[in-house]
Amino acid sequence: MVQTADGLGAFIRRHTAAFLCFALAGSLLTACGSHKENVQELSGQPAAAVSSSAAPAPAERTVKDEMGNEVKLPAAPKRIFAPYLEDCLLKLGIKPVVQWANGTEGHPYLKVELQGVPTLDFSSGLPSPEALLAYNPDFIILHNANYASKGYESYSKIAPTYVFNNATGDVEKTLAVLGDLLGKSSEADQAQKAYDQKVTEAKAKLAKVAEGKKASIIRFAPRGISMMGANYFAGHVLHQELGLGKVKLVEKENSANVSMEILPDIDADYIFTINQGGQGTDRIKEMMASPIWKTMPAVKQGHVYEVDEAHWLGGGLIAYEKIMDDVVRLLVK
């Protein structure tokens, strides 16, 4: 536990905003605008009511996060810390006060967009409260329950802290929730519409060459070789968004271990390989040199593609859009 100094982080500033609109006919004052009430649908709590009179809107509202914690939301947070949710924040037009990093490197596919944003190292787990305190966040958002179990109590003493159970499980829902929490619902809606349009266009292009075809993502990592299912990251995009079929090994599972013995069961028309951290090179060479590998449908057709782990393992609409671009570029000749 970290004791707060000089009351830092113990009190949340209260701001009251009054929005007044002059009617064109006459001089009557009416209230304009209201909060979009989607917290009730997305995170289980109703948004704070906004009066239809000229009375000022409440500066703060209290919601429950996905772990059941009551969170008093700041009226207009400016210094946001949301590790591993930077992709979503950028879609809302927000740069965090500090970003997630493995060592000193943040998400490589967001390097340009997050240029100049300092990093916090997560390679050894959740950073200490002291390390975070140096950036003086006024709102903290943790992307999964595991983070909460290790740091919620101390982090919540620094600033209001909202916890997702698993934000990467449904990034579109996560984007909508973040939009509501941060007063960016309009931006979230616009980003979602643009994404939906991109999905529609990509599916139309793929239908010409890949309708009825199956695809597989094989992940070569230091701890072993696995096949990705359809629930998360690139698997979600490939199968649920773009509609490419799944092989039997992951029809009901979100992942499956891959060995020489099961290669004949991978009846995919397209195979995408991920060399995680560049540490799967030896395993890739060994597998691809085997006679069994060379008999697989995708291999015989020349439909094996190595892709960039940076966004293929990314959780956000920016990553998903980059994956779609890759798939269309590689499959539609």
Please give a structural write-up.
The chain has 333 residues and is of the alpha/beta class. It contains twelve helices and 14 strands. The chain has a five-stranded mixed sheet, with helices on both faces. α6 (185-210) runs parallel beside α12. The longest helix is centred in the middle third of the chain and has 26 residues, at 185-210.
Which features characterize this protein?
single chain; 333 residues; alpha/beta; Rossmann fold; 2 domains; three-stranded parallel sheet; 14 strands; 32% helix
Query: Could you describe the largest sheet, including whether it forms a barrel?
Result: 5 strands, mixed
As a whole number of angstroms, the C-alpha radius of gyration is 23 Å
- Tell me the CATH topology of the largest domain: Rossmann fold
The helix content, as a percent range, equals 25-40%
Q: For this structure, what is the CATH homologous superfamily of the largest domain?
A: Nitrogenase molybdenum iron protein domain
**What class do helices, strands and sheet pairing give?**
alpha/beta
Q: What sequence of helices (H) and strands (E) makes up the elements?
A: EEHEEEHEEHEHEHHEEHEEHHHEHH
- Please give the count of helices: 12
- Using the 3D structure, state the CATH architecture of the largest domain: 3-Layer(aba) Sandwich
Quick summary:
By secondary structure, this protein is α/β, with parallel strands linked by helices. It has helices at residues 39-43, 86-91, 129-133, 145-155, 171-181, 185-210, 233-241, 281-288, 291-294, 297-300, 309-312, 317-331, and strands spanning 20-22, 29-31, 61-64, 70-73, 80-81, 99-101, 119-121, 139-142, 161-163, 215-221, 224-228, 255-257, 270-275, 304-307. The strands form five sheets. A five-stranded mixed β-sheet has the order 12-11-10-13-14, with helices on both faces. Strands 5-8-9 form a three-stranded parallel β-sheet, covered by helices on one side.
